[in-house]
From TrEMBL:
Belongs to the NSE1 family. It is found in: Chromosome, Telomere; Nucleus. One of its GO terms (cellular component) is chromosome, telomeric region. This is Non-structural maintenance of chromosomes element 1 homolog. Keywords: Chromosome, DNA damage, DNA recombination, DNA repair, Metal-binding, Nucleus, Telomere, Transferase, Ubl conjugation pathway, Zinc, Zinc-finger. It comes from Trachymyrmex cornetzi. Its EC number is 2.3.2.27.
Length: 266
């Protein structure tokens, strides 16, 4: 079908969110086009975006496995660039957090360690302001926060991969199955092969095996048996519930931090 106002609405939603959850994207497509063929709609939008060297990518969060739609440039440069309303101190902190995540053995860094990085910055940044900033980065999917630890966010993977390749060439690993760069995954204790968690779940589902795809050894980090028994409706409901809980938690944390910051200034 021809490119229409409905296509523009989907594109605007993705650009506004920065990282639009697939479930919400699907709901929008159904409402606008009366069908759920999201691949068709994204292909039609991307055909229009191609001359502008931009595209909408569908990318899995490495930690949760959930899919997001992200508007990004097809020509990435070697620098990490962000919107201008963040301070130099905040951006310096984020780059330091990236460095710690990529060079860490666990592919993550604790929130406490992130706040302690403030003391190493050239520009002054209070721990309260830093906590608010990192929380906002998690809300915008630049980072992924889980159980008090920060992981690489899906938006960073989509938009800053070239920067990571050029800056941390020796630290990036490749997924055993999809052959794409990987920041967080399941590592085999026998052959040291590392695989995206969601790739490993798909592999286990299709091959009825919980072993490493590179050797017969069993996997170590994730218990994948539940992925074979969950029905599609269960997965969708769990995903929606996860999003709602995440939003409620993040909103509550933001309000508490803003009150704390206000009290410090009074």
């Amino acid at each position: 079908m021809p490119y229409s106002k409905q296509h523009k609405t989907v594109l605007q939603a993705v650009m506004h969110e920065g990282a639009l959850h697939e479930d919400r994207g699907k709901e929008l497509v159904i409402r606008l086009f009366d069908h759920n063929n999201t691949a068709q709609i994204l292909n039609e939008i991307n055909a229009k975006l191609k001359p502008l060297c931009t595209t909408i990518k569908r990318i899995n969060c490495e930690v949760t496995g959930e899919l997001y739609w992200i508007f990004t440039s097809m020509v990435q440069d070697k620098t990490a660039s962000f919107v201008s309303h963040f301070s130099q101190a905040e951006l310096a902190l984020l780059r330091n957090v990236y460095s710690e995540i990529i060079t860490s053995n666990d592919s993550c860094v604790s929130s406490t360690f992130c706040l302690n990085l403030c003391s190493s910055l050239n520009a002054k940044l209070t721990k309260t302001d830093a906590e608010l900033f990192l929380l906002e980065m998690a809300n915008r999917q630049w980072l992924c926060c889980k159980e008090g630890k920060y992981y690489m966010g899906v938006r960073s993977i989509a938009e800053l991969l070239q920067y990571f390749k050029d800056t941390y060439e020796g630290n990036l690993q490749i997924c055993t199955l999809c052959k794409q760069e990987l920041f967080y995954g399941d590592k085999c204790n026998q052959c040291n092969a590392i695989t995206h968690v969601y790739c490993l779940k798909n592999y286990a589902r299709n091959h009825s095996s919980l072993g490493c795809p590179n050797c017969p050894f069993s996997t170590s980090r994730q218990n994948l048996s539940s992925s074979n028994t969950s029905c599609a409706m269960d997965v969708e409901d769990a995903s929606q519930t996860s999003m709602e809980i995440h939003e409620m938690t993040q909103s509550s944390q933001t309000r508490k931090l803003k009150r704390k910051r206000k009290n410090e200034l009074m």
